[in-house]
Protein backbone atom coordinates (compact mmCIF):
# COMPACT_ATOMS: atom_id res chain seq x y z
CA UNK A 1 0.00 0.00 0.00
CA UNK A 2 1.21 3.47 -0.83
CA UNK A 3 2.11 6.45 1.32
CA UNK A 4 -0.06 9.54 1.06
CA UNK A 5 1.39 12.82 -0.17
CA UNK A 6 -0.64 15.05 2.10
CA UNK A 7 -1.15 18.47 0.55
CA UNK A 8 -2.97 19.80 3.58
CA UNK A 9 0.02 19.23 5.88
CA UNK A 10 2.67 20.37 3.41
CA UNK A 11 0.74 23.49 2.40
CA UNK A 12 0.24 24.37 6.08
CA UNK A 13 4.03 24.33 6.55
CA UNK A 14 4.54 26.56 3.50
CA UNK A 15 1.81 28.96 4.60
CA UNK A 16 3.32 29.18 8.09
CA UNK A 17 6.64 30.12 6.47
CA UNK A 18 4.99 32.75 4.22
CA UNK A 19 3.14 34.23 7.19
CA UNK A 20 6.40 34.41 9.16
CA UNK A 21 8.24 36.07 6.24
CA UNK A 22 5.33 38.50 5.86
CA UNK A 23 5.57 39.49 9.51
CA UNK A 24 9.29 40.16 9.08
CA UNK A 25 8.64 42.14 5.88
CA UNK A 26 6.00 44.29 7.61
CA UNK A 27 8.17 44.76 10.69
CA UNK A 28 10.88 46.12 8.39
CA UNK A 29 8.42 48.70 7.07
CA UNK A 30 7.46 46.87 3.87
CA UNK A 31 4.14 47.48 2.17
CA UNK A 32 1.26 45.14 2.99
CA UNK A 33 1.34 42.44 0.25
CA UNK A 34 -1.82 42.92 -1.76
CA UNK A 35 -3.47 40.43 -4.09
CA UNK A 36 -6.31 41.48 -6.40
CA UNK A 37 -8.54 38.71 -7.71
CA UNK A 38 -10.96 39.28 -10.56
CA UNK A 39 -13.92 36.95 -10.90
CA UNK A 40 -15.92 37.09 -14.11
CA UNK A 41 -19.35 35.49 -13.93
CA UNK A 42 -20.94 33.38 -11.23
CA UNK A 43 -19.42 29.92 -11.61
CA UNK A 44 -19.96 28.33 -8.15
CA UNK A 45 -16.62 26.47 -8.17
CA UNK A 46 -14.78 29.68 -9.07
CA UNK A 47 -16.59 31.52 -6.30
CA UNK A 48 -15.35 28.92 -3.80
CA UNK A 49 -11.77 29.22 -5.09
CA UNK A 50 -11.92 33.02 -4.82
CA UNK A 51 -13.30 32.83 -1.30
CA UNK A 52 -10.50 30.44 -0.28
CA UNK A 53 -7.88 32.75 -1.74
CA UNK A 54 -9.39 35.67 0.17
CA UNK A 55 -9.35 33.75 3.45
CA UNK A 56 -5.81 32.54 2.96
CA UNK A 57 -4.60 36.06 2.10
CA UNK A 58 -6.07 37.34 5.34
CA UNK A 59 -4.42 34.55 7.31
CA UNK A 60 -1.07 35.56 5.77
CA UNK A 61 -1.51 39.20 6.78
CA UNK A 62 -2.05 40.23 3.14
CA UNK A 63 -4.62 42.66 1.81
CA UNK A 64 -7.08 40.89 -0.43
CA UNK A 65 -9.10 42.74 -3.07
CA UNK A 66 -11.94 41.17 -5.02
CA UNK A 67 -13.55 42.46 -8.19
CA UNK A 68 -16.56 40.82 -9.73
CA UNK A 69 -17.63 41.37 -13.31
CA UNK A 70 -20.78 40.00 -14.92
CA UNK A 71 -20.31 37.05 -17.29
CA UNK A 72 -21.24 39.25 -20.24
CA UNK A 73 -18.96 42.12 -19.23
CA UNK A 74 -16.82 41.55 -22.29
CA UNK A 75 -13.10 41.47 -22.84
CA UNK A 76 -12.68 45.26 -22.92
CA UNK A 77 -14.14 45.62 -19.42
CA UNK A 78 -11.84 42.91 -18.08
CA UNK A 79 -8.80 44.54 -19.67
CA UNK A 80 -9.80 47.92 -18.26
CA UNK A 81 -10.05 46.46 -14.74
CA UNK A 82 -6.63 44.86 -15.08
CA UNK A 83 -5.18 48.09 -16.45
CA UNK A 84 -6.43 50.00 -13.40
CA UNK A 85 -4.87 47.41 -11.06
CA UNK A 86 -1.60 47.53 -13.00
CA UNK A 87 -1.50 51.27 -12.43
CA UNK A 88 -2.19 50.95 -8.69
CA UNK A 89 1.17 50.75 -6.93
CA UNK A 90 -0.40 49.35 -3.76
CA UNK A 91 -1.46 46.19 -5.65
CA UNK A 92 1.35 43.63 -5.95
CA UNK A 93 -0.35 40.59 -7.48
CA UNK A 94 -3.25 40.33 -9.91
CA UNK A 95 -5.04 37.23 -11.02
CA UNK A 96 -8.09 36.53 -13.03
CA UNK A 97 -9.94 33.45 -11.82
CA UNK A 98 -10.06 30.80 -14.55
CA UNK A 99 -11.92 29.60 -16.49
CA UNK A 100 -13.41 32.73 -18.00
CA UNK A 101 -16.98 32.48 -19.27
CA UNK A 102 -17.70 31.90 -22.95
CA UNK A 103 -16.85 34.81 -25.20
CA UNK A 104 -13.42 35.55 -23.70
CA UNK A 105 -10.46 34.78 -25.91
CA UNK A 106 -7.45 33.30 -24.09
CA UNK A 107 -5.39 33.37 -27.25
CA UNK A 108 -5.81 37.11 -27.62
CA UNK A 109 -2.37 38.65 -27.01
CA UNK A 110 -4.02 41.56 -25.19
CA UNK A 111 -5.46 39.14 -22.61
CA UNK A 112 -2.25 37.13 -22.25
CA UNK A 113 -0.18 40.28 -21.77
CA UNK A 114 -2.70 42.26 -19.73
CA UNK A 115 -1.23 41.78 -16.25
CA UNK A 116 2.18 43.39 -15.77
CA UNK A 117 4.81 40.63 -15.57
CA UNK A 118 5.91 41.82 -12.12
CA UNK A 119 2.32 41.39 -10.82
CA UNK A 120 1.61 38.20 -12.76
CA UNK A 121 1.44 35.83 -9.79
CA UNK A 122 -0.45 33.22 -11.86
CA UNK A 123 2.39 33.08 -14.43
CA UNK A 124 0.29 33.74 -17.54
CA UNK A 125 2.26 36.50 -19.18
CA UNK A 126 4.38 35.34 -22.15
CA UNK A 127 7.44 36.96 -20.55
CA UNK A 128 7.04 34.88 -17.39
CA UNK A 129 6.28 31.75 -19.43
CA UNK A 130 9.44 32.53 -21.39
CA UNK A 131 11.61 32.89 -18.28
CA UNK A 132 10.23 29.55 -17.10
CA UNK A 133 11.02 27.83 -20.38
CA UNK A 134 14.58 29.22 -20.17
CA UNK A 135 14.90 27.58 -16.76
CA UNK A 136 15.09 30.92 -14.91
CA UNK A 137 11.55 31.51 -13.63
CA UNK A 138 10.68 34.72 -11.75
CA UNK A 139 7.43 33.35 -10.38
CA UNK A 140 6.86 29.60 -10.08
CA UNK A 141 3.63 28.37 -11.68
CA UNK A 142 1.30 27.53 -8.77
CA UNK A 143 0.00 24.02 -9.35
CA UNK A 144 3.22 22.54 -10.82
CA UNK A 145 5.35 24.22 -8.14
CA UNK A 146 3.01 22.75 -5.55
CA UNK A 147 3.66 19.29 -6.98
CA UNK A 148 7.41 19.88 -6.72
CA UNK A 149 7.04 20.92 -3.08
CA UNK A 150 5.03 17.78 -2.30
CA UNK A 151 7.75 15.60 -3.84
CA UNK A 152 10.51 17.50 -2.03
CA UNK A 153 8.72 17.24 1.32
CA UNK A 154 8.54 13.47 0.94
CA UNK A 155 12.20 13.31 -0.09
CA UNK A 156 11.37 11.95 -3.53
CA UNK A 157 14.20 12.84 -5.91
CA UNK A 158 13.51 13.66 -9.58
CA UNK A 159 17.04 13.60 -11.00
CA UNK A 160 17.38 10.81 -13.53
CA UNK A 161 13.80 9.63 -12.99
CA UNK A 162 11.31 9.20 -15.81
CA UNK A 163 8.49 11.66 -15.22
CA UNK A 164 5.43 11.19 -17.42
CA UNK A 165 3.03 14.15 -17.49
CA UNK A 166 -0.50 13.52 -18.76
CA UNK A 167 -1.74 16.80 -20.19
CA UNK A 168 -0.10 19.71 -22.00
CA UNK A 169 -2.12 22.73 -20.90
CA UNK A 170 -0.36 26.05 -20.40
CA UNK A 171 -1.50 26.15 -16.78
CA UNK A 172 -0.51 22.64 -15.63
CA UNK A 173 0.96 20.12 -18.08
CA UNK A 174 3.57 22.23 -19.89
CA UNK A 175 4.93 24.12 -16.86
CA UNK A 176 4.91 20.86 -14.88
CA UNK A 177 7.11 19.25 -17.51
CA UNK A 178 9.46 22.25 -17.45
CA UNK A 179 9.86 22.16 -13.66
CA UNK A 180 10.54 18.41 -13.76
CA UNK A 181 13.11 19.01 -16.49
CA UNK A 182 14.75 21.72 -14.39
CA UNK A 183 15.01 19.10 -11.63
CA UNK A 184 16.94 16.84 -14.05
CA UNK A 185 14.14 14.34 -14.70
CA UNK A 186 13.70 12.68 -18.07
CA UNK A 187 10.29 13.96 -19.12
CA UNK A 188 7.60 12.64 -21.42
CA UNK A 189 4.47 14.70 -22.10
CA UNK A 190 1.31 12.90 -23.22
CA UNK A 191 -1.92 14.38 -24.58
CA UNK A 192 -5.11 13.39 -26.33
CA UNK A 193 -3.32 12.40 -29.55
CA UNK A 194 -0.71 10.22 -27.80
CA UNK A 195 -0.76 6.64 -29.02
CA UNK A 196 -0.22 3.61 -26.80
CA UNK A 197 -0.68 5.74 -23.71
CA UNK A 198 -0.54 2.83 -21.26
CA UNK A 199 2.83 1.69 -22.64
CA UNK A 200 4.23 5.14 -21.86
CA UNK A 201 2.59 5.64 -18.46
CA UNK A 202 3.83 2.20 -17.33
CA UNK A 203 7.39 3.49 -17.81
CA UNK A 204 6.85 6.35 -15.39
CA UNK A 205 8.76 6.46 -12.13
CA UNK A 206 6.64 9.53 -11.38
CA UNK A 207 3.28 9.80 -13.14
CA UNK A 208 1.54 13.18 -13.04
CA UNK A 209 -2.08 13.28 -14.24
CA UNK A 210 -3.56 16.62 -15.37
CA UNK A 211 -6.19 15.48 -17.82
CA UNK A 212 -9.52 16.60 -16.37
CA UNK A 213 -11.22 13.21 -16.73
CA UNK A 214 -12.56 11.36 -13.68
CA UNK A 215 -10.53 8.26 -12.75
CA UNK A 216 -8.81 8.25 -16.14
CA UNK A 217 -5.62 6.62 -14.82
CA UNK A 218 -6.36 2.99 -14.05
CA UNK A 219 -4.19 0.47 -12.22
CA UNK A 220 -3.00 -1.21 -15.45
CA UNK A 221 -1.47 2.12 -16.54
CA UNK A 222 0.83 2.33 -13.50
CA UNK A 223 4.16 0.63 -12.79
CA UNK A 224 4.47 -1.15 -9.46
CA UNK A 225 6.09 1.27 -6.97
CA UNK A 226 5.53 4.41 -9.06
CA UNK A 227 4.84 7.80 -7.50
CA UNK A 228 1.41 8.98 -8.67
CA UNK A 229 0.41 12.64 -8.56
CA UNK A 230 -3.21 13.49 -9.30
CA UNK A 231 -3.75 17.12 -10.28
CA UNK A 232 -7.28 16.55 -11.56
CA UNK A 233 -10.34 18.05 -9.92
CA UNK A 234 -13.49 16.64 -11.48
CA UNK A 235 -16.90 17.54 -10.13
CA UNK A 236 -19.24 14.60 -9.90
CA UNK A 237 -22.94 14.79 -9.27
CA UNK A 238 -23.72 16.75 -6.14
CA UNK A 239 -20.72 18.40 -4.51
CA UNK A 240 -18.35 15.43 -4.68
CA UNK A 241 -15.03 15.76 -6.47
CA UNK A 242 -12.68 13.10 -7.75
CA UNK A 243 -9.30 13.15 -9.40
CA UNK A 244 -7.95 11.91 -12.71
CA UNK A 245 -6.65 8.78 -11.00
CA UNK A 246 -8.71 5.80 -9.93
CA UNK A 247 -7.36 6.17 -6.39
CA UNK A 248 -8.71 2.93 -4.87
CA UNK A 249 -7.31 0.78 -7.65
CA UNK A 250 -4.00 2.60 -8.11
CA UNK A 251 -3.05 3.22 -4.46
CA UNK A 252 -2.08 -0.42 -3.74
CA UNK A 253 0.46 -0.30 -6.62
CA UNK A 254 1.92 3.13 -5.99
CA UNK A 255 4.75 3.90 -3.55
CA UNK A 256 3.33 7.39 -3.02
CA UNK A 257 0.05 8.92 -4.14
CA UNK A 258 -1.86 12.18 -3.71
CA UNK A 259 -5.47 12.08 -2.55
CA UNK A 260 -8.19 14.22 -4.14
CA UNK A 261 -9.19 16.38 -2.38
CA UNK A 262 -6.31 17.19 -0.06
CA UNK A 263 -3.40 16.62 -2.45
CA UNK A 264 -2.46 19.18 -5.08
CA UNK A 265 -5.32 21.63 -4.45
CA UNK A 266 -4.11 23.10 -1.15
CA UNK A 267 -0.59 23.33 -2.58
CA UNK A 268 -1.67 25.59 -5.44
CA UNK A 269 -3.02 28.23 -3.10
CA UNK A 270 0.10 28.06 -0.92
CA UNK A 271 2.27 28.72 -3.96
CA UNK A 272 0.05 31.65 -4.92
CA UNK A 273 0.66 33.18 -1.49
CA UNK A 274 4.39 32.66 -1.93
CA UNK A 275 4.27 34.40 -5.31
CA UNK A 276 2.28 37.31 -3.91
CA UNK A 277 4.83 37.88 -1.16
CA UNK A 278 7.58 37.70 -3.77
CA UNK A 279 5.71 40.26 -5.91
CA UNK A 280 5.50 42.57 -2.91
CA UNK A 281 9.18 42.21 -2.10
CA UNK A 282 11.78 41.04 -4.61
CA UNK A 283 9.74 41.77 -7.72
CA UNK A 284 7.96 44.85 -6.44
CA UNK A 285 10.57 47.11 -7.94
CA UNK A 286 10.04 45.57 -11.38
CA UNK A 287 6.30 46.21 -11.24
CA UNK A 288 6.96 49.78 -10.15
CA UNK A 289 9.08 50.21 -13.28
CA UNK A 290 6.15 49.07 -15.38
CA UNK A 291 7.43 45.55 -15.95
P1 LIG B 1 -7.07 21.17 -19.86
O1 LIG B 1 -6.61 22.53 -20.26
O2 LIG B 1 -8.43 20.71 -20.26
O3 LIG B 1 -6.00 20.13 -20.40
C1 LIG B 1 -6.21 18.76 -20.31
C2 LIG B 1 -5.08 18.04 -20.99
O4 LIG B 1 -5.36 16.66 -20.94
C3 LIG B 1 -4.90 18.42 -22.48
O5 LIG B 1 -3.55 18.60 -22.76
C4 LIG B 1 -5.48 17.20 -23.20
O6 LIG B 1 -4.84 16.91 -24.44
C5 LIG B 1 -5.18 16.09 -22.22
N1 LIG B 1 -6.09 14.98 -22.45
C6 LIG B 1 -7.43 15.02 -22.55
N2 LIG B 1 -7.91 13.78 -22.81
C7 LIG B 1 -6.85 12.96 -22.88
C8 LIG B 1 -6.70 11.59 -23.15
N3 LIG B 1 -7.73 10.79 -23.42
N4 LIG B 1 -5.45 11.06 -23.14
C9 LIG B 1 -4.38 11.85 -22.88
N5 LIG B 1 -4.46 13.18 -22.65
C10 LIG B 1 -5.69 13.71 -22.63
O7 LIG B 1 -7.00 21.01 -18.29
P2 LIG B 1 -5.99 21.69 -17.21
O8 LIG B 1 -6.35 23.09 -17.00
O9 LIG B 1 -4.60 21.33 -17.52
O10 LIG B 1 -6.45 20.89 -15.90
C11 LIG B 1 -6.33 19.49 -15.80
C12 LIG B 1 -6.99 19.00 -14.54
O11 LIG B 1 -6.34 19.60 -13.43
C13 LIG B 1 -8.46 19.42 -14.41
O12 LIG B 1 -9.16 18.41 -13.73
C14 LIG B 1 -8.41 20.67 -13.57
O13 LIG B 1 -9.61 20.89 -12.84
C15 LIG B 1 -7.28 20.32 -12.64
N6 LIG B 1 -6.58 21.47 -12.06
C16 LIG B 1 -6.31 21.40 -10.74
C17 LIG B 1 -5.62 22.42 -10.13
C18 LIG B 1 -5.31 22.30 -8.68
O14 LIG B 1 -5.00 23.27 -8.04
N7 LIG B 1 -5.34 21.09 -8.12
C19 LIG B 1 -5.22 23.53 -10.85
C20 LIG B 1 -5.47 23.57 -12.21
C21 LIG B 1 -6.16 22.52 -12.81
P3 LIG B 1 -4.93 17.90 -25.73
O15 LIG B 1 -4.00 19.02 -25.43
O16 LIG B 1 -4.49 17.07 -26.85
O17 LIG B 1 -6.36 18.34 -25.81
Main traits of this protein?
alpha/beta, Rossmann fold, 291 residues, binds NADP nicotinamide-adenine-dinucleotide phosphate
Structure description:
The chain is α/β, with parallel strands linked by helices and 291 residues long. It has two domains: 29-116, Leucine Dehydrogenase, chain A, domain 1 (Rossmann fold, 3-Layer(aba) Sandwich); 142-266, 3-Layer(aba) Sandwich (Rossmann fold). 40% of the residues lie in helices and 15% in strands. The protein has helices at residues 7-27, 44-60, 75-87, 109-112, 126-133, 142-153, 173-182, 197-201, 247-250, 264-280, 284-288; strands spanning 3-4, 34-40, 63-69, 93-96, 162-166, 186-190, 206-209, 227-230, 234-235, 241-242, 256-257. The strands form three sheets. The protein has a six-stranded parallel beta sheet with strand order 1-11-8-7-5-6. Helix 2 links the parallel strand 2 (34-40) and strand 3. Helix 6 packs across helix 10 (264-280). The longest helix is centred in the first third of the chain and has 21 residues, at 7-27. The model has no long low-confidence stretch (mean pLDDT 95). The structure holds NADP nicotinamide-adenine-dinucleotide phosphate (NAP).
Amino acid sequence: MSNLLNGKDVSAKILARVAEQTRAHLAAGGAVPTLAVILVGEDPASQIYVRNKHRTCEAMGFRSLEYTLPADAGQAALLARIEALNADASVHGILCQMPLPKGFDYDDAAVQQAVLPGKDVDVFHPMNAGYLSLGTPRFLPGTPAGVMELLADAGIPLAGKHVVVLGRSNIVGKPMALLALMADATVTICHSKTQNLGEITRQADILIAAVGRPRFVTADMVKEGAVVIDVGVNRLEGKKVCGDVDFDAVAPKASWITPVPGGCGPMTIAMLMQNTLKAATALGALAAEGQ
